[in-house]
Amino acid sequence: MPSAVQQDPGPARMRRSLGVKDGVAIAASSTAATTSIGIGMGALAAYTGRQTPALLLLAFLPILGIALSYARLNRSEPNCGSGYTWVGRSIGPWPGFLTGWVVLVGNVIFMAYTGAVTGSVVLQFLNKLGLHSVLGLQLDPTSTGISTAVGLVALVVVTVTAITGVRAATRMQMWLLIFEYAVLLIFCGYALFAGDQPFSLSWLNPLDIGSPQALAQGMVLAVFFYWGWDAAFSVNEETRSSSDAARGGLIALVAMLGLFLVGALAFQRVMSTEELIRNGPQALTFLGSKLAPEPWASLPLAALMCSAFASLQSSVIPTARGALAMARDRTLGPVWQRVHPRYGSPAVGTLLIMAVAALLAVLAVGIPKLNDMILTAVNSIGLTVALYYGLTALACAVRFRDSLRAGAVRALRDVVVPAASALTLFGLGAYLVWDYATMTDHFEASPDNGWFMLTLPALFVLVGLAAAAWAKWVRRAPYFRTGRGTDADAITLPMDADGAPLPSPSKG
Predict the structure, then answer these.
(1) Percent helix, strand, coil in the chain (nearest 5)?
(2) What is the dihedral of CA 179, 227, 465, 358, to 10 degrees?
(3) Which pLDDT does position 20 carry in this prediction?
């Protein structure tokens, strides 16, 4: 970054250079379909068995309603703060702050567990090369401890890149995305024809899911699968029009549905439910070994490693950016808006986010099996994502409630669908909270322990409320008087030598 970039150049209007294709790429990268498919299908199968494809179809419906809510709000008020800004203005600053807060927390948790996943994939590669131990230490990809240690190195690398080389990282992510999806579609497409597990129409019937608890838990996990398409709305200031951002997010969401269905059907054509659950985070590697000889069998593992690294990188950049936007409203401390004088990035905030993610990853080492750690993290993220998606959809219904008198089509689009989607996610969350609270009578750090599964999201929300109280009564943030975030064009982002904003990739 040229030295001409000052520490605080003041409000600057962004150059709107991004279009629909850029929005699709950002949203697709953030959703991290390869990572979700590669490590998450086993987790879904543990709850829904062979009805995983049906569950992914069912979960798509409220998520589509949420996406339409984002698009409607974005046409009215384009802002990179998205839910944080929209909820604050439509419902109130407290739920608005909480929306921004859980987005930040969800991304940090995602970085913590994805670091361990990245380490596990690297260890799988080393095992394939014949390296199974170093100095007597077993390089076990299923071990949370050793996977986390390797993942912390990866986290440091992507953080340095996020601070110093955002534009180059964005170009690289596009090529990684093409490689990932090409490998995924080739292997999963072949699996649909070559698999030896008989196909059944019951795979597409959600009524065959065993219990309401399994349905609710699976739905929350599926919400996590789709999480990330809204990253297209985080680059409103660089997008030529608000409709481009909306189209990019919606196109990516529909594409993710296709990829998830193909992946779920392919896995079930090749693996029994027991095999899928047992392989867990190594399911994509197992799929490759069942379908092709080496070295071709390692291609899915290579795609998963690309996706895992991209996931880390695409999380740290928008997370620091969201904290920067909140700091400008004085809802977070000034440390989060310090811009590096050379690179023009929120370097201190980025380092702090990496440090918190690393700390959470180290604390999670107390959960010895990597698959159990993933279940714990995904459940926590799923509940918080359901909360902020629901709040944003509710904000749409509240803001445009006058559409109820403007005709059936507008009422359905602006109020009924957003409200129904919000109530669906709130209902799922409330049911799971009740189920977790009553499923056990003791505390244990395990994904099978309801009190433990409740502790994490409850802690995130309580800390968020405490941070909101501090911002309101100590920092006296104007956001809590008006509910309005900083005007979109007043947000200063990293610029290149020509004065154009450096694009932010946003899950892998």
Answers:
(1) 75, 0, 20
(2) -30
(3) 61
In a 3-state reduction of DSSP, which class is residue 420? Answer: helix
- Would you say 394 and 418 are in contact if contact means Cβ atoms under 8 Å apart? yes
Element (DSSP H or E) covering residue 138: strand 137-138
How far, in Å, are 181, 299, 358 from residue 304 at the CA level? Answer: 10, 9, 21
Q: What's the CA gap between 443 and 235, in Å, rounded? A: 42
pLDDT at 41 over 80: yes
Residue at token pair 């008989």: 198
pTM of the model: 0.85
The pLDDT tens digits of the residues spanning 178-187 come to: 898 999 999 9
Q: For the packed helices 166-194 and 299-328, what is the interaxial angle rounded to 10 degrees? A: 140
Handedness of CA 182, 48, 380, 415 (dihedral sign): positive
Strand-pairing partners, residue 501, are 495
Angle at 253 between CA 299 and CA 111, to 5 degrees: 60
pLDDT tens track for 198-244: 999 999 999 999 888 899 999 999 998 998 888 777 655 555 565 66
Task: Give the DSSP per-residue string, 272-308.
Answer: -HHHHHHHGGGHHHHHHHHH--TTGGGHHHHHHHHHH
